[in-house]
């Protein structure tokens, strides 16, 4: 079995700044991590490989420094890492990102065998669109299985999978077939700790680094800014609210303070008392 | 980038909403979107189209009728037994075919599991732009959709355009937009569209559907009153104080993200950017600092009360009332005070 896991390197906090003129992210000095949601997919892939045999390839598209994320994935136990990096990819929206990643996955298939399951995270913590997984699935015509809480069965012979998917108001128990694209829900697996041996191996491991041309991407019009139908026109700070909260004076007895607060609320919103009475009565 | 809309896209007209019909139930985000679609369509001088996809049953018909009540002019109705359960493949094919046939200029979907799953694959199939999790939708002077979304944890907003491709697609999270008024008896045109689907060609099968036990699913996003606790409560047991107050108020309880990370509360109780967006009439935040990621999930509340020992906590920038006191001591007193004021019992006393 061949599992390909797409991981994205993201800033380790939301405190990143945007350049006011160019509307681009200023990432300098911000520590980076593997997108936390991707770890659940990576873990699921590693477990399947441990059970069934095969290989896990991790793939990221990003600047050369995204190599750190790949090395981290190798310490967890991934077998191989591919870094897709080229200035042509700068400014990619999700359509362009999924194009580049899909092409790289094709190339990975040519080199080391077609993947049986491609994994992506549910979403990232920076772009946060949840669009790249479905994008890759469509471009590679893989069965698309998102928001999966459990992969219950993978049958390599019959080329089938069974999984549980989070839907509105319940869980869908699904069967589908390989090859497919799966995005795992957070909390769906306990993430292993990287081992010392893994860390040593990762430090020495060779990372396969591909430019657009190396990955067989010839149509540069589909990449980066030019390949992105969305255009970020304006980045701005939200308008602050004019007045601050009104302080309710704290009395010696909490109950008095509580009564004062309730009085102030009912005064500010006269309809509230009736609303609350109805709610409290379970109406 | 300049707007140079290719000739073949110029026929694209009208604003569509994908109505999320699942197991006979329409997700309320669809009606919230219908309200937005109405405003956009009125500005553009076009119609609002509702897409209703499902099995040929009462649920689909009812969803169509409700679409009119919430502001649709036209309903594109696709009924097929194969569409009884949501599956990416059958729904992607159906929605893509509708778009290619009737050519809307704007297509809105809820940023739910269904909506995000479907929007991503439809936009990729159509090779058009898709803006995620918008908090504001508008049309600008040249009639383009200006889709605004928070970025970098809500510290900034950005406005995104899909200038030269159609449809312009966007998703919006539940509760971000206001629920529009419902007009009983409002009607419109139904366009029934047949899609050629064979079960054999749909690879993914739904073997079973396991409904959530009601205790598991909270109505947090849609509650009228929400009481939430944060790290200021010191430990997981003290979240009980929050639950007790919510209970007396007939509301729901929630928490900040660290409470979930510490295992004090299940993930479905988290409020904020990576949790639920709420829009209650009353929101009480106890021991929550009001970090930007929390704030973006609660800003839609009508009235916000902060119980926080720190008079300079950022939550005070959005709260209407604040009590600078120990929440662990204050919450029980507040619970008692509310009980005395609003319990049915207290009401009887007043009436009697
Ligand atoms: C302020 C701002 C707002 C944006 N808004 C939009 C928008 O509304 N619509 C839009 O189309 N684009 C948008 N983008 C662009 C988008 O962030 C990028 O295309 C980004 O590369 C991928 O999107 P994401 O982070 O949302 O990924 P998601 O779709 O949330 O990622 C899902 C999964 O895909 C995989 N994945 C994603 N990126 C990579 C990668 N580089 N390498 C390997 N695997 C990856 C991971 O497994 C990840 O967990 C925005 C960018 C900025 C700066
Ligand atoms: C990508 C990303 C996504 C995130 N998403 C979310 C999200 O969805 N939701 C979310 O909530 N957070 C989210 N966060 C985390 C967020 O940045 C904050 O860390 C978090 O909201 C802080 O939680 P808190 O207010 O409970 O804790 P703290 O920030 O520690 O605040 C505790 C507050 O309690 C007050 N306090 C202390 N003792 C008492 C007392 N006895 N009585 C009353 N008040 C007291 C303190 O003055 C302080 O204001 C996210 C962060 C990132 C990076």
TrEMBL record, chain A:
The keyword Electron transport applies. InterPro entries: ETF_a/b_N, ETF_b, ETF_beta_N, Rossmann-like_a/b/a_fold. Keywords: Electron transport, Transport. Gene3D superfamilies: HUPs. GO terms for molecular function: electron transfer activity. Pfam families: ETF (PF01012). Residues 22-219 form the Electron transfer flavoprotein alpha/beta-subunit N-terminal domain. It comes from the Bacteria. PANTHER family: ELECTRON TRANSFER FLAVOPROTEIN BETA-SUBUNIT, PROTEIN FIXA. This is Electron transfer flavoprotein beta subunit. It comes from Roseiarcus fermentans. The lineage of its organism: Bacteria, Pseudomonadati, Pseudomonadota, Alphaproteobacteria, Hyphomicrobiales.
């Amino acid at each position: 079995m061949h599992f390909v896991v797409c991981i994205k390197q993201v800033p380790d906090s939301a405190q990143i700044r945007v350049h006011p003129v160019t509307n681009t992210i200023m990432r300098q000095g911000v520590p980076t991590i593997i997108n936390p949601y991707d770890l659940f997919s990576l873990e699921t892939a590693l477990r399947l490989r441990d059970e069934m045999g095969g290989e896990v390839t991790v793939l990221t598209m990003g600047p050369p420094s995204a190599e750190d994320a790949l090395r981290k994935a190798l310490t967890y136990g991934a077998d191989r890492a591919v870094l897709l990096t080229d200035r042509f990819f700068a400014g990619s929206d999700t359509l362009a990102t999924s194009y580049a990643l899909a092409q790289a996955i094709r190339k990975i298939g040519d080199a080391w065998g077609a993947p049986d399951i491609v994994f992506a995270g549910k979403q990232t913590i920076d772009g946060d669109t949840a669009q790249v997984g479905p994008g890759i699935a469509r471009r590679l015509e893989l069965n698309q299985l998102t928001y999966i809480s459990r992969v219950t069965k993978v049958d390599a012979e019959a080329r089938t999978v069974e999984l549980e998917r989070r839907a509105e108001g319940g869980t869908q128990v699904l069967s589908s077939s390989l090859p497919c694209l799966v995005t795992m829900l957070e909390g769906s697996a306990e993430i292993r700790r990287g081992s010392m041996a893994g860390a040593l191996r990762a430090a020495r491991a060779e990372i396969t680094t591909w430019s657009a041309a190396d990955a067989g991407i010839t149509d540069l019009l589909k990449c980066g800014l030019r390949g992105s139908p969305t255009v970020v026109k304006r980045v701005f700070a939200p308008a602050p609210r004019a007045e601050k909260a009104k302080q309710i004076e704290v009395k010696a007895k909490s109950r008095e303070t509580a009564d004062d607060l309730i009085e102030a609320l009912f005064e500010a919103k006269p309809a509230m008392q009736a609303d609350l009475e109805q709610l409290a009565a379970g109406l | 980038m300049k707007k140079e809309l290719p000739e073949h896209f110029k026929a694209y007209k009208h604003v569509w909403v994908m109505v999320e019909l699942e197991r006979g139930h329409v997700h309320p985000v669809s009606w919230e979107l219908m309200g937005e679609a109405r405003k956009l369509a009125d500005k553009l001088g076009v119609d609002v189209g509702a897409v209703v996809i499902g099995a040929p049953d009462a649920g689909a018909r009812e969803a169509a009728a409700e679409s009119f009540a919430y502001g649709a002019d036209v309903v594109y109705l696709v009924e097929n037994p194969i569409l009884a359960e949501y599956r990416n493949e059958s729904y992607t094919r159906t929605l893509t075919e509708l778009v290619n046939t009737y050519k809307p200029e704007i297509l809105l979907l809820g940023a739910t599991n269904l909506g995000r799953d479907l929007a991503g694959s439809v936009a990729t199939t159509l090779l058009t732009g898709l803006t995620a999790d918008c908090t504001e939708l508008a049309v600008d002077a040249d009639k383009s959709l200006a889709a605004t979304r928070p970025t970098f944890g809500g510290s900034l907003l950005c406005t995104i355009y899909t200038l030269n491709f159609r449809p312009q697609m966007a998703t919006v999270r539940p509760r971000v937009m206001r629920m529009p008024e419902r007009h009983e008896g409002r009607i419109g045109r139904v366009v029934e569209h047949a899609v050629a689907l064979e079960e054999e060609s749909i690879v993914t099968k739904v073997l079973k559907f396991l409904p959530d036990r009601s205790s598991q699913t909270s109505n947090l996003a849609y509650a009228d009153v929400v009481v939430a606790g944060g790290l200021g409560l010191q430990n997981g047991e003290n979240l009980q104080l929050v639950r007790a107050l919510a209970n007396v108020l007939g509301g729901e309880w929630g928490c900040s993200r660290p409470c979930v990370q510490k295992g004090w509360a299940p993930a479905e109780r988290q409020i904020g950017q990576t949790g639920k967006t709420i829009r209650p009439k009353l929101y009480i935040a106890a021991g929550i600092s009001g970090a930007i990621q929390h704030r973006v999930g609660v800003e839609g509340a009508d009235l916000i009360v902060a119980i926080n020992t720190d008079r300079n906590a950022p939550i005070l920038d959005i709260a209407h009332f604040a009590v600078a006191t120990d929440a662990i001591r204050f919450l029980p007193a507040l619970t008692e005070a509310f009980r005395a004021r609003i319990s049915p019992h207290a009401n009887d006393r007043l009436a009697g």
